[in-house]
# Entry
Amino acid sequence: MTEATAVRTGAAVAISGLHKGFGEVRAVDGVDLLISPGEVVALLGPNGAGKSTTVDMMLGLTRPDRGSVSIFGRAPRAAVSAGVIGAMPQSGSLLEDATVAETVGLIAALHRAPLPVATALERAGVADLADRRCTRLSGGQKQRVRFALALVSDPDLLVLDEPTVAMDVETRREFWRSMREYTSGGRTVLFATHYLEEAEEYADRVVLMRSGRVVADGSVAQVRAAVSGRTLRAVVPGVRRSVVAGLPGVRGAETRGEQVSLTCSDSDAALRALLAAFPDAHDIEISALGLEDAFLALTGEDA
Amino acid sequence: MNPRFLMLEVTRAVRSTRYLIFTVVLPAVMFLLFLNLYGGQGGSFPNGLPVRTSLMMNMALFGVLSGPLAVGARIAVERGSGWQRQLRLTPLSGTGYLLTKGALGMLVALPAVVLVSFIGGVFEGVELEPLQWLALEGTLWLAALPFVLLGIVVGLVSSPDGMQAVTGGVSMVFGLLGGIWIPADVAPGWLRGVMEVLPVYWVKELAQAPLVPGVNVPMALLVVGAWVAGLGLVAARRFRAQA
# Structure
């Protein structure tokens, strides 16, 4: 066994060359992703970025056109059957005519080595709702019951697709608190979200997707550093893109006629070098790039 | 098959007032109603079957048709709501799911048979030998099989929104044209032709075989068997296409 395959076999999630199309749309267009046991990973991206399709393929709910997914060295369906992976898919639902305890109890009974139902309810913070019919739950309560369904198989990997989507601020905070308790035991979690602050606060690592591809992948600190630059705009007569792109402190450059827009890791150095090389540069503007802007810059469509 | 899953399915069915009304209460009420309209004088059909016994069998069959149909139609709802997705995140296989729904269909067909027969035997003077009762009850219950499969096909084919209309149409065709509401003996020739293609007619033939002479049992088994095989095949193919 080579070192690479050893890593892949030990990985919680190993995705390589994953493709999935729906008609003309390439929902997932070549995703590679390796997640180690114990990592808490946020999958970020705008609607239609391919997050849910990727998650569905990890859960064996959708078959990839090409590429492979392995969960702790197993195929997705086998991992689901073994109870290794627990999930809250986006479009899942509860039974309207059953109680919370009955529903969680059923899912527990279908698994081979489940948690006691009471424990799962407690961990998801819905112990007080056990005898409530599922029709009589609020949106946030439903989400937490679905969280209990994901927990009850006692999985090593939790996959959550926009788990807090129907929750108010208070419930959301409570949800993440129970989540923290769960991950402190060394479990692996992958959650898709479009709340940036959730990713910042709860994930060790952020994976940004856009148009079916991974466009950025790193620790929260790395991604923040990568995006915490500044943008330098100026009108530069006689500019050539290759020259400005090579200036110190410049990470990316765009030119449109004489208009130059530079994404800078060090805007001071970039400005000095720009003025030295092009003394005629004028209408200079430097603006800060927040995480939100950076997120949009990394995941948005090209202007 | 997971017993806990079947248990919860039965609990949910019993909780549903619609199930209880349409598949348990209504057949019994209709039996009493028709009995007052047609069966009071204690007449018999040409083959010797008393009208009241025939009505009892027909109304039991009404429950045997509508119970499993209601169960099957729920498959369409669970497909649309996302509950099936939730189940696909457990070791439960698709086959296990359908088998459980099938077992549930057989179970929900039973109360109507028992209740209508109880009313017939205890209050309405239907007189049969113990062995005849046993054979009749058993046949009526086993007769649920083609309708259980029919329900599953309806559940797999129709959309959650169209499910109600499809179920209504199917129970109309199978019930009315199948001879539950019109006795085959009084049906005009063309209708009788239609009846003899549908499973309800032959199921009733099988059920009355222990009571009256002249039932073509091999033919009945052949037609019902063909329906079971055909519906089973459609269900399997449709299910595989969706998995």
The two ends of chain A are 46 Å apart (CA to CA). The domain at 3-224 of chain A is CATH 3.40.50.300 (Rossmann fold).
